[in-house]
Amino acid sequence: MSTSPLAPRRSPMLTVLMALFLLYTLVPLAWLVLSATKTQDDLFSSPGLWVGDEFAFFSNIRDTLTYRDGIFLRWLANTLLYVVVGAGGATLLATAAGYGLAKYRFPGRRTVFAVIIGAVAVPGTALAVPTFLMFSNMGLTNTVWAIIIPSLISPFGLYLMWVYAADAVPDELLEAARIDGAGEIRIFFTVTLRLLAPGIVTVLLFTVVSTWNNYFLPLIMLSEPKLYPLTVGLTQWSAQATGANAQPVYNLVVTGSLLTIVPLVIAFILLQRFWQSGLSAGSVKQ
Amino acid sequence: MLIISGRRARRRIALVAAALTAASVLAGCGSDDAGGSGGAGTAADLDAALEEGGTITYWTWTPSAEAQVAAFEDQYPNVEVKLVNAGTGNDHYTKLQNAIKAGSGGPDVAQVEYKALPQFALPGDLIDLRQYGFDEFEADYTPSTWASVQAGEGLYGLPQDSGPMALFYNQEVFDEHKLEVPKTWDGYVEAARTIKKENPSQCITNDSGDPGFTTSMIWQAGGTPFQADGEKVTIDLQDEGTQKWTGVWNQLIEDELVCTIPGWTEEWYKALGDGTIASIGLGAWAPGVFEQSVPDGAGKWRAAPMPTYDGQPATAENGGSTQSVLEQSKNPALAAAFVRWLNHEEGVEPFLESGGFPATVADLEDPAFVDKKLDYFGGQQVNQVLTDAATQVVEGWQYLPYQLYADTIYGDTVGKSYQTHTALEGGLTAWQEALVKYGNEQGFSVN
Lengths: 286, 447
Fold this sequence. Notes:
Chain A is 73% helix and 0% strand. In chain A, helix 3 packs parallel to helix 13 (250-280), helix 7 packs antiparallel against helix 10 and helix 10 runs antiparallel to helix 13 (250-280). Chain A contains 13 helices and no strands. The radius of gyration of chain A is 24 Å and the shape is globular. Chain B is of the alpha/beta class. Chain B is built from 19 helices and 13 strands. Chains A and B meet through helix 2, helix 4, helix 5 and helix 12 of A and helix 1, helix 4, helix 11 and helix 12 of B.
């Protein structure tokens, strides 16, 4: 009556749909790469998906890195700091807490669960203004801490680690380790972390991407351009093109955007295989 | 993995709802406005403050600020001005608003566009500069910019630049179609039809729905859709002036005679350079933008007075900024002294050098400025057209005390008329309804 779900099937409609999605994804990227090779004049005068009269890719990169005393590099360093400390810290905290919640029984566990599920549902944007007011009272606005501290909390990452740890770390293994005389801290670092590696990579990828792309929080927290991450800095360059005294530097905005996504693309390619195994973990009962 | 089912799901949803409520309560309970002391001080304090020195923070996105601050610090070595580009336009205002709400963290002096001034001045977030005797400077500025730095009874800045509108047009395109530059809006619509007929890829101008342009055009037509008197606000986007404007502009929109290229985009700069856009009404600050950013248009563009409804000269302001002192400033006298220097004394010079258009009468009448021939505009004495315009601005205009919000929802209301090429009245009515509703929610009494 029905075809087996395991038999591969060709569906013309799905193929067309996939092709459209592929186009939708790749055309902007192609535009970005092509545009980064153009001078600003060519950006204005040549078609979007074709090359300009001049090949200005390398001079664009040079100009992007040196414009306004090389502030782009400063923004890149800031972004790296926020990602390494913020996303790294968030992953570590989510792993420890998720594992703890999955494998230890203690009073108040259900409340913690409720709070976390609730926190997953609240978008970061909604919390930005209250967070701002709180940080302002503590005198932390316009410092790197204003970006790092909120980035350390990843309710979704915690939830993911919790669910993952519940399946990936067998209770029997923990008991065996305890019988062998290992303390809880040692078990966490020597046994658990290895078992959780695919999950950790998944959470790391999520938090890295969200910290790298974080825009609204730094936008409202920071007023000093020296502390900006790339997202806010590039928007500032782009905003230069409007109003009286407008000074468009579109070629630098475009080239800067291309440079900004390169590290993320590399991270994705390197971590992809872990990520895939992470997402399917726990879906099948062995 | 994330699927939750049955009764447990319902309980979880309830918990989530509870958490959300908690969050929104948190969001509501910001710290009380710390507020300054009322910025007590007198005119005599200013020179003393400059003498004594200190540090003030200045938020602006004006490119001329760097040169201005350097010149100021040369003149007053005891004063340090921390110059911060905290963002442009709405980003800047969001941060300013947050700092005001938090009671600290804001600058001493901030750039505020004329359209945004009432929003910060009326709730008492800015210092009334009359206490420092700034009301004496009235005669030094054009009447329209002077009106722009006032809100209610108070004076909240000194005008930095002004943007009386003029029509900038591409001489080559007009010659190509054997057209004269229209003096009336009826003539403008006719020219639009000729251009469209002879070359469908060109258009008389671009407009994809821009709140700043719309308000300026209603202003020029003599409309006063927004009136604020304390908490009482009147909104009437069907008044006589507004109807005069829609009467003309509807023809351009409905017959698709304007290009729908959004302003300040890459595409727009390109269209200004290659003759796609034949003319555009912009503030007097436009020549600097053309020279800097539309290299392909060099030699082709000219300036003319704005077309009018009856052929008599009349124009409006488009854009323009002032510098205000924040109520939370710890050194308001020094901040006010800086503002005075910036927009009344030596600070005007570096501003003009960077291509700004002044608000000060003395500079507008200076022959060296007025008679200057601009190469970009084929040697035309553009400033003659623009300084004339500065004296022809229609009086009586007011912005809403929440104009920034109004601008953000403009696209969802009036913008629709542009997309569907239908009469603007529908969109304007929707805008008005939304603005009345929002105003009443914010504690104004709006009708």
